[in-house]
Each structure stands twice: as structure tokens, then as C-alpha cells.
Specification:
With about 475 residues, the protein is an alpha/beta fold. The chain folds into 3 domains: about 200 residues, 3-Layer(aba) Sandwich (Rossmann fold); about 110 residues, Four Helix Bundle (Hemerythrin (Met), subunit A), CATH 1.20.120; about 55 residues. It is about 45% helix and about 15% strand. The protein is built from 15 helices and 15 strands. The strands form 5 sheets. Strands 4-3-9-10 form a 4-stranded parallel sheet, sandwiched between helices. Strands 5-6-7-8 form a 4-stranded antiparallel sheet. A 3-stranded mixed sheet has the order 12-11-13. A hairpin with a 4-residue loop joins strand 1 and strand 2. The protein is elongated, with a radius of gyration of 26 Å.
């Protein structure tokens, strides 16, 4: 079966045809390292990690590049505030990135290039653009001439005239045209700088990704990804300068995930609804955050809500409980050996999972299949309580375990041990408390069913005493933790 993805460049869903059969070359814009990553950074990290995993599941050899922007105005300003060297500050937050990424189940890229290590490639590319008449130097700055590239605006769908009408007043007098953008910036006192034919300076933001992606993946690589906020101007400018420099297509497919919103508003520091992943990891395990980020189709906006995230936590507990029961059955009653025939029912789950992922990487639908599989396993185990498993039952259990593993290898929502076995009972207190809470809620629900109001109220009041409040709704009980003082 073919994989179809939505290509921002053509604004339609297309069959994925790689540049080289059996191989995928991907470049995804990484964070600017002046702080811990925030939830908006985390969404593309988790999603494109999942895309990479699914291509590997489909037997593609994947080359995955994700950069770090360690030379940027934000880094310089933050370093000045903290009295630290800009490159040292950026390096510190690169290291912190790997801590948070690991908690989210995001695997390291094949290569994480740093801007500061690629000045030779950047200067060379700027020089080519100047030589070809697509860029010009003014007082040590080098600017890209937007009107020299006829297809400018093809990624974002904006025309040059439209962009010009929206240009701000007070345009830099160095620019020949208000739309021109910086490729190289002349050095300023106290800022990091490198040698170039135009004097000491540092690169503009857009040229950095062009130089690094072309170095490691070459012209016409398969997929360039990032958040939808990067479509313009960052990715639009990447297309223009890259294709102007090489005369060839830059990337074949462009993929962009939707915004993270909070109470239906875009997450931003100015609105005070800004969440760092490091802070959220103090409240939720990383697998819960990953599950939440994959629970909605990647191109749709995703509204961050504590109750929804708590619901994701409960959903993961249910899935882990199902896996735990399956592992117990395999360990206790199934003979040693490899997986048997999965059978028609399990084959249908695999097909549904692949159909979901083949259709523009629909992780929400794929997760739904995972729940269906868990339900089938729970039903099977309930119907065979106390029974001796025959070859057919053993094959079903082995096949279900294998399928859980395969789906998780793509979605990455369960941690695994060194043998690749899904960890269903973590030793950490957070995981234990999740299972205990699920048990208490089940006890309370059964008490309510018996109209044993005293027991139900005792559970409710006991949970309230430790900061967990319950709300009974037509859709079932909801719970939330009291925010720490």
C-alpha cells in the first residue's frame, strides 16, 4: 500500500514517491536553544519522530536530520541578560533538549547539526547567491533580493504584491526592496562573529537551514518539516535562496503540523499561557504528553487542556493494564517460543493501523485501533478465564503481543525495556499512583452501582484530602489534581 501525505507546497494530499527507492531523506527544523523547549516545540518533535518510525516500520531506510539553531538574536539577548557567552548558553540548552526529548520518547536524529559548526557552508552559499545576482552586499550586510526569484511565495501561497502591501513602515534603508531579507549580518560589538568576504558577521536565520540540509541530504531531498508557524517567512525564504543558489528543486514534500492553543488561543508568552515541557514533566509522565500530542491529527490545531491530558493519562493506564494482563497470560500459561499466527482478527487490526498511518499519518485513528486491540485482548482473556490455552489461543496471545509491540514501535507511547518489551508496571511513584487511582475509581464506581453511597463518599473524600477532586458527569467520572500552592 502507498503512503499519502499532505504537501504544503501543492496544497493537496499526494502519494509519497521517494527520490531514491526504498530510502527517505528528511530534514526537520529544530529548536532555537535559548531556553527549555516548550509545548509548541514538542509537537513537531514528537510527530516527526513518529513519521520517521513509521517509514522504518514500512521498511524504508531513513536519514533523519534535525538541526539546532545555536546562533540567533534570541540567544544573544538571553545571554546578555544572564551574563553568559551566547554559544555556551546555547550549548547548555542543547543538552537540556536531549533530557526532555528522551522523556517524550523522541529518538535522537541521525545527525543534529549546529549552525556554529557550519559557517564555511553558509558563507559559501551566500557567496554563490551574490555571484548569481540574487543577493547584494551593503555595509557588511548581505541581503537576498526577493524579486530576483520569480517563484517567491509558492510555498505560502502569498504573492509579492500582497506581501509588499502588508510591509511595515520604517523599512531598513539598506534594503533595495522592503521584502529583501538578511543572509549575512555585519558584526556588532559583544556579539559572536565569524570571518567572511564581507567582513566579520554572522548568518541570518533562514540561510542556516538551507546550508545544512543541502550539505547532508543534497538537492531535491524528500521531506522538509516543521511547525506551521515556519511556513512564512522561514520556509518560504529557504525555498527561494536554496533554489536560487542551485537552480534545482529544494525539497519534494513539505509537511507542517498545526498550532498548539490554550483555551483556543495560540500559546504565547505575551498571553501568559506558555508551557515549558520541563514544567509539564513535573506534573505528567513523558508518555502521557506524547500520547496527548499524538491524539489529534497533526495538521489540526491542538488545544492544551489539563482535563484532556488527565484523560490521556487514564487512557494510557487502561492500555498498560491490558498489556499487563496479556504479559501475565503469556508468562503463566503460554509455552516458550516465537509468535504464532496472528489470525484474521489481528490481521484486521494491523490493516486498520496501517490504513490510518498511510492516510497522512493519522495518529489519532491509529491510537483508536490500539484501543480496539486492547479491548479484544481483554475480552479474550475474560472469556478464557481458568481455561487451558490450546494452540489457537496461544497463537492469538502471541500475535496480540507482537502487534502491540509493532504499533508501539511506531507511536512510541509506551516505554520499553532493554529487550524491547513494553514496560507496563513502572517502578516510579507517579506510575504506581496512576494505577492506584484507577483502582480507587473502579471501587467507587462499583459502590455507586450497588448504591453503597457511604463507600463512594469515603473514596471521594479521601481523594479530596490528598488534592484530587472528582466530578460525576453523564460521560463518567472526571478527576483533576489541585494545583500546587
Amino acid at each position: 500500500m502507498a503512503i499519502f501525505l499532505f504537501n504544503t507546497l501543492t496544497r493537496r494530499k499526494e502519494e509519497f514517491v521517494p527520490r531514491e527507492e526504498g530510502r527517505v531523506a528528511m530534514y526537520v527544523c529544530g529548536p532555537t536553544t535559548y531556553n527549555y523547549i516548550h509545548l509548541g516545540n514538542a509537537r513537531p518533535l514528537v510527530f516527526f519522530d513518529t513519521v520517521r518510525r513509521y517509514f522504518a516500520y514500512r521498511n524504508y531506510a531513513v536519514t533523519f536530520i534535525q538541526n539546532f539553531t545555536d546562533v540567533d538574536d534570541k540567544i544573544i539577548n538571553r545571554a546578555r541578560e544572564e551574563g553568559e557567552d551566547p554559544l555556551a548558553l546555547a550549548g547548555r540548552y542543547v543538552r537540556e533538549y536531549f533530557h526532555d526529548a528522551r522523556e517524550l520518547g523522541v529518538r535522537p536524529a541521525d545527525l543534529h547539526p549546529l549552525v556554529s559548526d557550519h559557517m564555511a557552508e553558509i558563507v559559501d552559499m551566500v557567496g554563490r547567491l551574490v555571484k548569481k545576482g540574487h543577493a547584494y552586499e551593503v555595509e557588511g550586510d548581505v541581503l537576498f533580493s526577493v524579486r530576483s526569484f520569480e517563484d517567491y511565495g509558492k510555498l505560502s501561497g502569498r504573492s509579492v504584491d500582497e506581501l509588499l502591501s502588508g510591509a511595515r513602515v520604517g523599512i531598513d534603508p539598506k534594503k533595495r526592496d522592503p521584502l529583501d531579507f538578511a543572509l549575512w549580518k555585519a558584526a556588532k560589538p559583544g556579539e559572536p562573529a565569524w570571518d567572511s568576504p564581507w567582513g566579520q558577521g554572522r548568518p541570518g536565520w533562514h540561510i542556516e537551514c538551507s546550508a545544512m540540509s543541502l550539505k547532508y541530504l543534497g538537492e531535491g531531498f524528500d521531506i522538509h518539516g516543521g511547525g506551521s508557524d515556519l511556513i512564512f517567512p522561514h520556509h518560504e525564504n529557504e525555498v527561494a535562496q536554496s533554489e536560487a543558489a542551485t537552480g534545482k528543486a529544494f525539497a519534494r514534500y513539505w509537511m507542517h503540523n498545526g498550532f498548539i492553543t490554550v483555551n483556543q488561543e495560540k500559546m504565547s508568552k505575551s498571553l501568559g499561557n506558555f508551557f515549558l515541557v520541563r514544567d509539564l514533566l513535573g506534573r505528567f509522565p513523558g508518555d502521557v504528553l506524547r500520547f496527548f500530542l499524538l491524539s489529534t491529527h497533526y495538521r489540526s490545531p491542538l488545544d492544551f487542556d489539563l482535563e484532556v491530558t488527565e484523560s490521556c493519562s487514564r487512557g494510557l493506564v487502561r492500555l498498560k493494564n491490558s498489556m499487563g494482563l496479556l504479559y501475565e497470560a503469556l508468562d503463566d500459561r503460554a509455552p516458550a517460543g516465537g509468535p504464532g499466527d496472528s489470525g484474521g482478527e489481528l490481521d484486521s487490526f494491523r490493516r486498520e493501523f496501517e490504513t490510518a498511518m498511510d492516510d497522512d499519518f493519522n495518529t489519532a485513528a491509529a491510537i483508536s485501533v490500539l484501543f480496539d486491540l486492547a479491548h479484544a485482548v481483554n475480552t479474550f482473556l475474560h472469556e478464557h478465564r481458568g481455561c487451558r490455552f490450546g494452540p489457537g489461543e496461544q497463537a492469538f496471545l502471541h500475535g496480540a503481543g507482537e502487534l502491540f509491540h509493532c504499533m508501539n514501535e511506531v507511536l512510541g507511547i509506551f516505554p520499553v525495556d532493554e529487550s524491547g518489551r513494553i514496560i507496563v508496571r513502572q517502578s516510579c511513584a507517579d506510575s504506581d499512583s496512576e494505577h492506584l487511582l484507577a483502582l480507587l475509581l473502579d471501587v467507587r464506581e462499583k459502590a455507586r452501582g450497588r448504591k453503597d453511597w457511604a463507600t463512594a463518599d469515603h473514596v471521594r473524600n479521601g481523594l479530596k484530602d490528598i488534592g484530587i477532586t472528582l466530578e460525576d458527569t453523564p460521560d463518567g467520572v472526571r478527576w483533576k489534581r489541585r494545583s500546587p500552592d
